[in-house]
Specification:
This protein is mainly alpha-helical. It is built from 14 helices and no strands. Helix 10 crosses helix 11. About 9% of the residues have low confidence.
Length: 269
């Protein structure tokens, strides 16, 4: 019985004869050397031009941002709980990390120090959703008087929420120098955030005094010290403070609106 020869099995090894030498004599003369095995593997992998290009996958940072924000909130909340239960002395970085279920290195990487965590604690209490809502309402109007009245409402919101946090810090035994640094930083942030209202006042043409003096008085009247003296020490209600502050800002910083009669007289003149 005639035996049939089994068909040849194709080898998966690269075939050097699959590519010939360059037909261009210039390339040959210049010693153009081709690694045929490498070209074979590149062709099978459908990678062209002899260059391996790795296509970057689109990276969405939204998830990572949410995770980072969640980590910050957990660290700050752990700090708040430790201040309430253990005091400032028990608020160590290691204790915060354990309660927040993160590493101490992560706490240091995000906040650098205990002072950084306390500053974030004040930020979260002072510039929360209610503050953001008031700011958006204020930015929606270009009427200078309305902006100043919103500023009085915002100042009340900030100082009321900050007061509770500062009470917590004092009760927990946070030393005076640390509190002074925190307050100084908060005041600098507050001054910078008032710039947009200052610009509206300047562009209205109704400032009673020069722009820089108006900025300084605006910052002074809305300071925490005045809120503390009137509300905490003299017993004013927060609403009484807000009403007084709004009227004082308008009367001190702005010229009154010209009446219809005075405008009519100017036109006739």
């Amino acid at each position: 019985m005639e035996q049939r020869a089994s068909p040849p099995v194709e080898s998966s090894a690269p075939n050097p004869q699959r590519f010939s030498e360059p037909a261009n004599p210039i390339l040959r003369n210049r010693g153009f050397n081709i690694n045929y095995r490498y070209l074979y593997s590149l062709q099978d992998a459908k990678i062209f031009s002899g260059v391996v290009k790795t296509k970057k996958r689109p990276y969405t940072s939204l998830v990572r941002q949410r995770q980072a924000g969640d980590t910050r909130r957990r660290i700050v909340e752990a700090t708040r709980q430790l201040l309430e239960t253990e005091g400032y002395a028990g608020m160590t970085i290691e204790a915060i990390a354990r309660r927040a279920e993160v590493s101490a290195q992560s706490v240091y990487a995000i906040f650098k120090s205990k002072a950084g965590i306390l500053a974030e604690l004040l930020d979260q209490s002072s510039f929360g959703p209610r503050y953001q809502e008031l700011v958006q309402q204020a930015l929606s109007t270009n009427d200078p008087e309305a902006r100043l009245r919103f500023a009085a409402r915002i100042a009340r919101q900030i100082h009321e929420t900050q007061d509770a946090t500062f009470d917590l810090l004092r009760g927990a035994g946070v030393v005076a120098p640390e509190l002074a640094k925190l307050e100084q930083r908060r005041e600098c942030v507050r001054y910078d955030r008032q710039e947009s209202t200052g610009i509206v006042l300047r562009e209205s043409g109704r400032l009673r005094l020069d722009y820089q003096s108006a900025r300084d008085l605006f910052w002074m009247f809305t300071s925490r010290d005045i809120f503390r003296m009137l509300v905490r020490e003299r017993g004013w209600s927060p609403q009484q403070y807000e009403t007084w502050l709004a009227n004082t800002l308008v009367q001190t910083l702005m010229k009154p609106k010209p009446s219809h009669a005075s405008r009519h007289r100017k036109v006739r003149l």
